[in-house]
Every structure is written in structure tokens, then in C-alpha cells.
Amino acid sequence: MKFMKDKKILVVGLGMIGASYAKKLREHGLYVGGISARQSTIDYALENGVIDSGSIEVTSDYVKRFDIIISALYPKLFIEWVKNYQQFFKSGAILTDTTGVKCSVLYEIQSFLRKDVELIGAHPMAGREVSGIESMDTGIFEGANYLITPTDANTPEAVETARKIGEMLGFKSISVLSPEEHDEMIAFLSQLTHCIAVSLMCCKDSTHLVDYTGDSFRDLTRIANINEKMWPELFMMNRSELLEQMNLFEKEFSKLRKAVEDRDVQTIREMLILSTSRRKQFNR
Amino acid sequence: MKFMKDKKILVVGLGMIGASYAKKLREHGLYVGGISARQSTIDYALENGVIDSGSIEVTSDYVKRFDIIISALYPKLFIEWVKNYQQFFKSGAILTDTTGVKCSVLYEIQSFLRKDVELIGAHPMAGREVSGIESMDTGIFEGANYLITPTDANTPEAVETARKIGEMLGFKSISVLSPEEHDEMIAFLSQLTHCIAVSLMCCKDSTHLVDYTGDSFRDLTRIANINEKMWPELFMMNRSELLEQMNLFEKEFSKLRKAVEDRDVQTIREMLILSTSRRKQFNR
After folding, report:
1. Which of A23-27, A208-212, B68-72, B247-251 has the lowest mean pLDDT?
2. Chain A closest CA to B68's CA: distance in Å?
3. Per the CB < 8 Å rule, is A211 touching B144?
4. Annotated domain spans of chain B
5. Which of A27, A90, A253, B121 lies deepest, with the highest CB count within 10 Å?
6. Closest to B272 (Cβ–Cβ): which among A175, A226, A248?
7. Cβ of A201 and B247 within 8 Å?
8. ipTM of the complex
9. Which of A109, A108, A102 has its CA nearest to residue A69?
10. What does the pLDDT look like over B167-195, one tens digit per residue?
11. Which residue of A has its CA nearest to B246?
């Protein structure tokens, strides 16, 4: 990590993810600054060794000190923040992010971003259903994936910088894929599964069934405990991909429902065999 | 368990569940016999201390020795077996089962069962996606639920016998509920969730996504590894309940899909809040 040693990093947004980033990067000996909307968060961060310095105001004097700016804001706020404050960025600064949708965020910002500054997208797949700086936990990256999503506007140096950040945070694996591949994958693996879990919990008041509940229902609904502020925003910012995956699932589910209705045991069996053979690939 | 000590128990079907039952009951000092279609299974069971005696033939001489008969056959086969061999049962014998659907099995058998014999339904919620006597495991009952499903045809004594069996097997909790309540609950908690997991795996060949797969997708599809012989039979024998639960889920999922399509963030948020508050009841 030699080439990073003299870089100063600014983390914008000191929620659970932002604070965990800041603390972990600081443990590597880097100078880390922080911006938060609340003074109490800055105070907490300074007292707990999360940042070296912090500010609730976004000033040119403060922001221009940093070589790398990491946004840990919700996607819409991130776009607004860059629009409002990019004139303060140091020339040559590298900007990266933590948002769970890529195309709509990256292409939008890159369309108005200063030409002497570079945005490289990244997605730490390490969310938890907790929020706020008090929930920070530098251990959450250990078993998780870090995805870097360069566009045509990016240089190899920026990809390398994002990779170094992922390595310092301690992610298990680091992958590079296009924003389009990312958004399709995340719509299927994450957004669709959350929609399914939520729909299942909305079916009926099932609390009287708690005593009978085995592992299958618990497994399927674990992610039904979901942040109602962030997820609708993520859904909207990846809307067409999510709709495509939801339609795909609805089609398969309807096929199975119809087979049950028609007593078409052959079709049911075929779906079970396909399902079982594919699922084996995911065993670990 | 005093009153059980002198009872002889016959287990019909020595697959994973039947053999685990037999071995565990024998550990309590009971005399346990076994019936299997294959001599190799009987031999294995005798060699491994699963049963005291066994037979591949169903004869009056053998069957009439037993006070309690436990079927660990698939549901349809169970019905046929009772139809074919009930004339061999000892008068006053108690018959119980292990099938995962209740109404269609119990009411059918009770409609033709000899009047001097009693069938009390039971469902050990302790399946594994493995089969055969070699997979037996007397530890699988420990954390699991045992459900007793009496009908109007049952006596309190038979319920008590089923309860004693559940206790000896070591189940964590034992509940009594009607076959109708059982089938609705199992359609929602177990059959619907399996249908969802299977549909999700059938959506697309997702094996290239293995590297990116976080816990949510793994959690939702763990039960997509499913026995294609038994489950279609269970679906068919609980068809109308399952269809009702599938329709319920489809309605909620469509509502969420439409909200995403219409950019109706308010509805999405309401579903997420409801889902989160209900899921909290299932945390443990």
C-alpha cells in the first residue's frame, strides 16, 4: 500500500458504512477526514478514533486538502453533494462511492463532473440492517465482496486506487465489472430477493405461527427486516432492471402455480430437478 | 414413560426418518420391529442396532405382535399400505404417521379404518434433504417441532401415546392442532417457501453469479435443493391450501411490482415498514 501512504482521504457521511470505512483506513496509518451533517457525529468520530479531523460545513479550505474523497451518502444525496461542492475538490482528486446501484449514479455524475477530477464507482457488499455511527464495525468487510465498476471515463489508475481501498478495508474478494453487469446482478441477487421476502411477510399476520416456524421461513424472511428509507431509493434508481428481474420471477412462479392447479406433476418435478441441480453450485 | 415400556413398536418404512425413529425409540429400551421393501435395508438395520427384528413381508404373524405402528412411508403409499394390511393389525393397536400433510391422509384412512384400531396423525418437522437408512440421525429431532393432529375420531389416550413418542424422540416442542390448521400453516410456512425458492432458481442460470452471491440469495434458495419425488406428492395432497397461499403471495408480490413500476414510493415504503415490524417477531 506504499503509494497510498501519503494520500489524505475524506469520508463524506459518517453512518454505519462511512464510519467503518474511516476507522479501518485510519488503522492503516492514513490521514482521514470526515464530513457529517451533525456536530454530535463529528464529536463521536473524533472521540472514538474514527477520523483525524472533521467538519459539518463543506468549505473549500477543508475539502481541497484531500486526494481521495469517498462518499458514503445515499445515492440521490451523493449526486446532489457532488453538484454542489465539486468546485472545492482538489485538482486531480479521485472520488469514489459506496452506493448499491451504479448506472444511474455514475453516468449522471460523470455527465457534469469537472474534467480534472475522476469518479470511480465501487460497491461494498457489506450492508447491515443497522444504521448510524454507533453501529460501525470494521469487521463487516472480512467475508464480503467489493465490486469496482469502471466506465469508459475511467483510467486504470483510478481502478487501482479503488482496489487498494478495498484491500485496506479487508474485503474477501475484489471484482471489476461494468456498471450494467453490476446493476443486473444486484437486481437479481439482492433487490429481487428483498422484494420476495417483503411480499412474503406482507401476506398475512403470521406472528401466531412463530412456534411452528422452521428454518425455511426464517431463512426466506431474514432480509425482510429492511431499511425503509434507503431501499425504495435503490429500487427507483435501478427500476427498469429490477422490473425485468421481478417479471422473470413472476413468470416462473406462475408456471409453478399453474402446474399445481393443473395437477401437472411432470412440470413440478422438472422445476424441482432444475432447481436442485442449480442450487448445488451455491453450496459452500 | 412407564406406560410405554411394555409396548412393542413397528416402524414401517426404514428411510431416513423411519430409521431415525426406530433407533431412537430402541435406545429407550422399547422393542422395535421394522418393515422395509428391501432385505438389504433390514440387514443394515439389524447390524446397526436400529431394530430388534425385521421383515420384508407383511404377514399377520409379524404385524399382530405390535401395539403401536408408525408409518414412515410417503403419504400415498401409507394410505395403500393401511388398505392392504389393516386386517393383520392387533385389535386395539394405535397407528401413527410422519407425513407432512394431514387432512387428505387422515380423513381418507379414517374413512376405511377398522373400528378397533385408531390412527392418530403426527408430523415431525425435522426433514433433511437426504434419504435412505444410511442418512439416519437420531439428533435431528432435538431442535425441532412435533405436531399432533387429532380429528374427532381420536381418543385422548391416542393423543397421549403420540405425545409420549414425541417426547422419547427428543423433540424441542410438541403441539396439538387440528389437521386443517396444520395444513394451512404448512402450506404457508413450508410449501409456499419451497415454491418460491424453486421459482427463483428456475429464473435463470445464475451459476456465473456465484462469486458475487451474498447471504440473501443463499438464504432464499437453501431449500431449493429439494426431493423431487416426495414434494410433488405433498403439493398434490395439499393442493387447494397451497394454491390459496400461492395466490396470496402472488397478490402481494404483484402489488410491490406495480408500485415499483408506478414509482409509487409511498406504497413501497409502507410494505417495507409492515414487513420489518412483522419480521421482528421471528428474531431469535
Report:
1. A208-212
2. 26
3. no
4. 2-177, 182-282
5. B121
6. A226
7. no
8. 0.90
9. A109
10. 999 999 999 999 999 999 999 999 999 99
11. A257
Take residue A103 and report the three cell numbers written for it. Answer: 448506472
B130 touches chain A (CB under 8 A): no
Pick the CATH number of B2-177 from 3.40.50.720, 3.30.450.40, 3.20.10.10, 3.40.50.300: 3.40.50.720
Q: What is the pTM of this model?
A: 0.90
Hey, are the CB atoms on A199 and B231 less than 8 Å from each other?
A: no
Give the tens place of pLDDT for each residue, B218-234: 889 988 999 999 999 99
Identify the residue among B147, B194, B211, B252 best suited for mutation to test binding to A, counting A beta carbons within 10 A and taking the highest: B252
pLDDT at position A109: 98
CA A173 to chain centre: 15
Backbone angles phi, psi at B101, to 5 degrees: -125, 145
pLDDT of residue B2: 56
**Which residue is it, cell 487498494?**
A164
Q: Which helix (H) or strand (E) holds B45?
A: helix B39-47
CB contact under 8 A, A278 and B206: yes
Residue given cell 472480512 in the structure block: A142
- Domain at B182-282: CATH architecture: Orthogonal Bundle (1.10)
What are the strands, taking DSSP E only, across B129-216? Answer: 145-149, 173-176
Instruction: Find, among B45, B46, B52, the residue nearest to B8 by Cα.
Output: B52
* Test mutation, A174, A279, A281, A284, chain B, max B CBs within 10 A: A279
